[in-house]
Amino acid sequence: MALLDTLVDQAIASELFTAPRIEADLGVFLREQTAAIKALARRASEGEWDRVYFVGSGGSFANMTSGQLLVDRYGGMVGEALTSYELMWRDPVDLGPRSLVFLASYSGATEDTLAALRHASAKGATTVALIRRRALPSPMAREAGIVIDYDSTALYDMPLAAVTIFAAELGILSGSPRADDARALLADLGRLPGVLGEVFRASREPALAQAQRFLSATTLYCVGAGPLWGLAYKFALTVFMENIRVNGSFVESGEFRHGPIEAFERQRPDMVFVVGTDESRSMTQRSLALAEQAGARTLVLDAAAYPAVHPQLTPFVLLIPLQWFTVFSALLRGITDLDERVFMGHRILAEGPDATWP
To answer: How far, in Å, CA of 80 to CA of 71, rounded?
Structure first.
């Protein structure tokens, strides 16, 4: 146990494990960048743009999906979330001078997202790069029309906070029928750093037991919906495979019974369920009940078991116990350098002199 404690101390200093720093880092980000993001929302509400795209790759796409969800929910513009190359391959006919494009890239030099930025710029769109400050100068910082930067390793939380502020403020300024709910969302966002610190300190001990229970897992499904769609996607298709080095797959809660359940005729998979407090809650609970009835081994992270926040903010909260679970799962498997990747970060499949990832 002493060795594990030492490894955990090392993990806390790693780039991967952002939960130990998120209380302070999110507080700084909200103080530094809220005004600039709200100014963008005001320009949008005044008619400068009529369409907004949320673009990223890998984990940075996961947080951008919330941008579309929130713009759809609160109104003011037409929004769409796309992976970086999909923006180019789809080449939307409406992408142009009346488009605002948010692009998330931790390094500011992600090949896919840099290419998407250049494509959007060539179409005359206004581009907003959401990047880490310490990555500056980077090609995205040089070429984006607007830069929203953050001094943090929290590559999921900070862009998520940015698009949350933008969408909620846009709804308020545009006279959304849900403006009061958008105001409640922003008020809860303001108190979120303290909540996340509390969740971080309470999540360590349960996560060790959870990781020990799943130590034999070779595939981890992650199931979620609504505001937690992006978080479930992120952990299934990036974090579990990147950091625990096991197979992973994402299942949207409502889609579980439309095909995936048939696999239970021959196997009993390991499944992580992230359960929200929004309208998707009932469907996720129904899918969980079905999985457990069919014999799945399940880890359930229910937002209702944590300090109450606005339902659209639950991804911030559940990220923390998921990170603790990932850290212990990796360490117990002998993966002690949480920041090293086997292929990513070594220019595998990378093209172009400006790209540093993957």
So the answer is: 9
Q: Tens of pLDDT along 29-80?
A: 999 999 999 999 999 999 999 999 999 999 999 999 999 999 999 999 999 9
Instruction: Tokens 């990223």: give the residue.
Output: 56
3-state secondary structure at position 323: helix
> Per-residue pLDDT tens for 140-177?
999 999 999 999 999 999 999 999 999 999 999 999 99
Domains of the chain: 19-177 (3.40.50.10490), 192-332 (3.40.50.10490)
Torsion angle, alpha carbons of 180, 82, 106, 345, to 10: 150
For 88-121, how does the pLDDT look when each residue is reduced to its tens digit (9 = 90+)? 999 999 999 999 999 999 999 999 999 999 999 9
Q: Is 279 left (phi over 0), alpha (psi -120 to 50) or beta?
A: alpha
Please answer whether residues 226 and 315 qualify as being in contact, where contact means their C-beta atoms are separated by less than 8 angstroms.
Answer: no
**Cis? peptide before 358, omega within 30° of 0:** yes
Dist. CA 147–CA 294, nearest whole Å: 49
Distance between CA 58 and CA 239 in Å, rounded?
Answer: 10
Give the single-character DSSP code of 235: I
Residue 166 backbone phi and psi in degrees, to 5: -60, -50
For 104, phi and psi rounded to 5 degrees?
-100, 130
302-313 tens-digit pLDDT: 999 999 999 999
Q: Which residues of 194-210 are buried (b: 16+ CB within 10 A; e: fewer)?
A: ebbbebbeebeeebbeb
In whole angstroms, what is the distance from residue 150 CA to residue 163 CA? 14
Task: Please tell me the distance from the alpha carbon of residue 110 to that of residue 58, in angstroms, as a whole number.
Answer: 10
Could you read off the pLDDT of 9-27 as tens digits, one per residue?
888 888 889 999 999 999 9
Cβ proximity of 105 and 130 under 8 Å: yes
Per-residue model confidence (pLDDT) at position 47: 97
- Alpha-carbon Rg of the chain, whole angstroms? 20
How many residues make up the chain in this entry?
Answer: 358
Neighbouring C-beta atoms of residue 103, cutoff 10 Å: 29
